Amino acid sequence: MQKISPIQIEWRPEKNGHTPVYKQIVQFVCDKVAAGEWTVGTKLPSQRALAELFEVNRITITTAIDELTSYGIVSGRHGAGTQISSNTWSLFLPKSNWNEYLKSGSFQENNVMIQAINRLEFEPSVIRIGTGEIDPRLFSQSMWSKTLQKVGSKLTSLGYLENLGLLELRQAIAKHLEDSGIRADPENILITSGSLQALQLIAVCLLQKGSTVFTEAPSYLKSLQMFQSAGMNLKGIPMDENGIEYWKLSSGETVDSSVLYTIPTNQNPTGTTMSENRRQELMKYCIDNQLPIIEDGAYQELSYNGVISKTLKSMDENGMVIYLGTASKTLAPGLRIGWVVASKPIVERLGDVKMQMDYGASSLSQWALTEFLNSGAYDEYLSDLKIELKNRRDNALKSLGKYFKNLASWNKPDGGFYIWLTFKNNIKIEQLFEAAIKEKILLNPGDIYDFKEDHSLRLSFAYVNSDEFNRAIRELSEIIKELN
Ligand code: PMP
């Protein structure tokens, strides 16, 4: 057999170029193969060597190799064994220059760390201690089968639904919202395909290019690209233990068409709940400065200290708050059901565009959620879920006290899924992420959510049970000691 000599690579990616670095690497390999310089069987340097050569992190290399693997150009992606496996890759694409089109769309790509997390979440045996989802083992099969059976026996059709979504569901949500102090009629409610779609609709229907979206720093919103993709600027405002420090919004910046996006209750990623005083002050500030609010209530119902925080929407007397709800964090993200509560012209405007986008959220899911809410099954299930989450939170805090006392500081959330942990040393989070993955622990680094590089993690006790959390935290503390 012919011996293939190691390849020499002089090329380097352009770090500050328009094209993401991993895409440049994909293009570079494609060009080499297309030009016939790298033939089938050519071995690429190991991922580690490529990362060093191109002075990029390993995740960038993994992302590039994954994309090349999906085209069939390379195979054997793990370790040092990646090699060119096909030079006929262009046959798999509708046009060989589709690659060029990949750069053209206006919607920005996910950050590479998030792409890696999205991929790694589905690797078997990985322990996910940052995931914002309820443990699938808490799925109550008997409750679901009872509810879905009832839905099945009542269904007479599964056609398209009216613009704003199933009337029966909007009625049930209107009633349910009374617990959060929100008075809304069904015509003030729009059903969306998850609250992500609600955010998308707001970005394209209500805001303008160049306007500013203020939000807590850190915030879940920073992990999304939808506002930036639509040409808006995202600006992080610091928080303290009572919530967003709204007075740090300098009044000159709250120009026309800016908005504030906030998650006041059990915030993602910090777990912070805004105090009642802060809520009142914030509302006053926003009224005085004519700054509309998008209130994301994804974790509103998940407070487990018995106190129901007053929603900003419940204090809203002039329609300046758009409230977002979702079934994803309490019940099931796979339903893909969220809702927008706002004045009639707003829900109609959003509903009109939603019809153009997907002609309505799943009717089956809408019937299912209606049944959950109307039968009382939802409320019963929710109180059990909160007990479970509270136990997991207590365990998580104990575990952190045992293994991270000298390494980090963290908060005690009153509800939701998350603990925000900040390291005392300037630990390199990417390095920690990679080292943890080797031990099958998947982390959600704080940088995904923050506006500056930080040394934090979003920990979640929702997805793993207490034993798994403890094991992962113990192992993580050992990894950190080794890295230090
Ligand atoms: N808002 C917040 C604060 C979230 O944490 C999430 C999910 N991570 C969403 C919205 C999106 O949820 P969905 O689209 O599933 O309703």
What structural class do you assign from the helix and strand content? alpha/beta
Strand content: 5-15%
Uncertain segments are none
Largest sheet, if any? Answer: 8 strands, mixed
Distance between the termini: 46 Å
Q: In DSSP terms, counting alpha (H) and pi (I) runs of 4 or more, how many helices?
A: 15
Q: Give the total of beta strands.
A: 16
State the shape. globular
Task: Kindly provide the radius of gyration, computed on alpha-carbon positions and rounded to a whole number of angstroms.
Answer: 24 Å
Lateral strand order in the biggest sheet = 4-11-10-9-8-5-6-7
Mean pLDDT across all amino acids: 92
Hetero compounds: 4'-deoxy-4'-aminopyridoxal-5'-phosphate
Proportion of residues in helical segments: 25-40%
What does this structure look like?
The chain is α/β, with parallel strands linked by helices. It is 38% helix and 13% strand. The chain contains 15 helices and 16 strands. It has helices at 21-34, 47-54, 58-71, 98-101, 112-120, 141-154, 167-177, 194-205, 226-229, 276-288, 344-357, 363-375, 377-403, 429-438, 466-483; strands at 74-75, 83-84, 127-128, 189-192, 212-217, 233-240, 243-244, 259-262, 293-296, 321-326, 338-341, 408-410, 418-423, 441-442, 444-445, 456-460. The strands form four sheets. An eight-stranded mixed sheet has the order 4-11-10-9-8-5-6-7, with helices on both faces. Helix 2 (47-54) crosses helix 3 (58-71), helix 3 crosses helix 5 and helix 7 packs across helix 12. It is globular. The structure holds 4'-deoxy-4'-aminopyridoxal-5'-phosphate (PMP).
